[in-house]
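Design a sequence for this backbone.
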């Protein structure tokens, strides 16, 4: 059990990559805090993990709201008494170039992906300092190499990487490690929604799979295992890195 009795908040964990991380952490003995805006799937997952291994709770929160975030952290501390790991995973993707992106859309994606990472980290750090805990930010390959029709999204994902490096330097003295995961394409509801929006979704799927040298897209469990490495003492000497879980898709760009 590599996370026995550690307490982890995972934002956006009712489904997709966050769910994969919650499942792997829970199986390794962590007490997990499942977070999303819509209760149904998150509650179901918390009930399943709570009865299976360790304990899990669901907290409804919107990471674009400071009050919601401070409420989330208070609730996690009330339930479990400590905080060891924060995973900033909640996020969304807007498929538009910068010219087509409205100012409201820019604000929305910034608030959802980047400002949320800032706010959750800001209010978690005092508690992580007590446990010498760590932060894992879920960025994207897009933050490293860009993507067509994703200027605003790329800005949020590149911003997460840069901010993580800064935080890794600032909080190393407190024993807090800060690392980033950059997934390639991962099989999640968000990605399925994107495939569904394409004119020929079967052809798009084939094209995207072929873009990955390993010939497929990734699974949420594979992201969970990467996060487990960064959350656990196995990576005790690792801070400020970006760990690509991408089937090699960023190679050869
Ligand atoms: P997803 O399937 O759409 O799941 C997103 C999760 O975040 C859900 O639990 C959603 O629940 C929650 N969420 C969204 N907005 C929220 C908010 N304002 N407050 C609280 N929770 C919120 O997405 P995903 O594909 O797993 O992506 C997760 C992260 O990985 C994102 O940051 C994304 O940029 C990144 N990523 C994904 C891929 C990929 O291929 N899937 C690749 C690279 C990076 P509610 O809607 O109920 O709130």
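Sequence:
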């Amino acid at each position: 059990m590599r996370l026995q009795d550690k307490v982890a908040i995972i934002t956006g964990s009712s489904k997709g990559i966050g769910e994969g991380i919650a499942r792997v952490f829970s199986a390794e003995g962590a007490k997990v805090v499942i977070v999303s805006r819509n209760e149904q799937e998150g509650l179901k997952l918390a009930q399943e993990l709570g009865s299976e291994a360790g304990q899990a709770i669901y907290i409804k929160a919107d990471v674009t709201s400071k009050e919601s975030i401070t409420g989330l952290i208070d609730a996690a501390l009330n339930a479990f008494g400590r905080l060891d790991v924060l995973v900033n995973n909640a996020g969304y993707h807007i498929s538009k170039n910068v010219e087509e992106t409205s100012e409201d859309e820019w604000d929305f994606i910034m608030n959802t992906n980047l400002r949320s990472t800032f706010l959750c980290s800001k209010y978690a750090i005092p508690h992580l300092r007590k446990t010498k805990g760590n932060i894992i930010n879920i960025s994207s390959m897009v933050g490293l190499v860009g993507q067509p029709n994703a200027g605003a999204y790329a800005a949020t994902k590149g911003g997460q990487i840069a901010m993580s490096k800064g935080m890794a330097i600032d909080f190393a003295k407190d024993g807090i490690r800060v690392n980033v995961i950059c997934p390639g394409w991962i099989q999640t509801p968000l990605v399925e929604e994107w495939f569904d929006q394409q004119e020929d979704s079967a052809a798009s799927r084939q094209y995207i799979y072929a873009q990955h040298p390993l010939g497929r897209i990734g699974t949420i469990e594979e992201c969970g295992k990467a996060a487990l490495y960064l959350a656990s003492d196995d990576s005790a000497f690792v801070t400020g890195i970006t760990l690509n879980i991408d089937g090699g898709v960023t190679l050869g760009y």
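The two ends are 38 Å apart (CA to CA).
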